[in-house]
Fold:
Amino acid sequence: MDHRPGLDPSVAEVRRAVRAVLERVDGPVVVALSGGPDSLALAAATAVEASRAGIRAEAVVIDHGLQDGSDAMAADAAAAARSVGLEARVVTVAVGSADGPEAAARTARYAGLAAAAADIGADVVLLGHTLDDQAETVLLGLARGSGGLSLAGMPAERRDATGPTWTRPLLSVRRRTTVAACAAEGLRPWTDPHNADTAYTRVRVRERVLPLLESELGPGVADALARTAEQLREDADAFQDMIDETIEDIVEHAEAGISISVAALAANPAALRNRIIRYVVDSEFGVSLSRTQTLEVARLATDWKGQGPIDLPGCLARRVGARIEVVARTAS
Structure:
């Protein structure tokens, strides 16, 4: 722990969270820096803890080019990182238009961070999401009704098939703590106007829904939501391990798709059966099934009455003898 006289408790809390992550790191790290209080507090703490651990750390600021003067704001954020002792670079990305603006910007941002990490030789990217971000994510997942994995929120650590490990050291730290840490260290965060724009659902959750819940139900709602996410993440990880073990025995490749054993699928409890179906379809076709679609596919195994193929996005599911085939629609 930090015991130096005069060290602000908020600064100490952020540093402890970063230190716990860096203790498991071997090699350079990237800090994703937007210039806001969360990522700026993360950058300042990383500068200290990485130096102590002998780890090279570099801040990467992504300029999406979506606002007038974004280049100047990105340069200011990089300068703030350098002022606390970090190397820093600005990466300009092109935001596509295939998805909504938020999703497109997020995709471009992560691609830019991954490319910068590869250039630096870093296998870890530190993200500044806090406990409050986690609570907002859980509420948004609850509103969508998209199941336990969505309610599990953001993982503390995620490794892509290719690219770096994405790590969130501050998921146990409140946003007010990062704001206080910046103030204690004399840092002036940039406030993104999008973070106050109630046209965005997440902003409405942040500015209206969570404060209302805290007011009506008492303090601690955000902490409770974050704890719920952590518990559900453990459940989701356990289910994934079970799925990985099970599909080796019950799934086979089929022409233009994949097939699943009816008997084995029906023998599994509903929670595992439905997850297997969603996982297989997503892995093979990149499609996220709704609960209604998942249950219809499951009925091909559990309530077979001769029903025909089930249309799914980009593919279809059909009963063929003792197996369920999920194939590209052109294969029908």
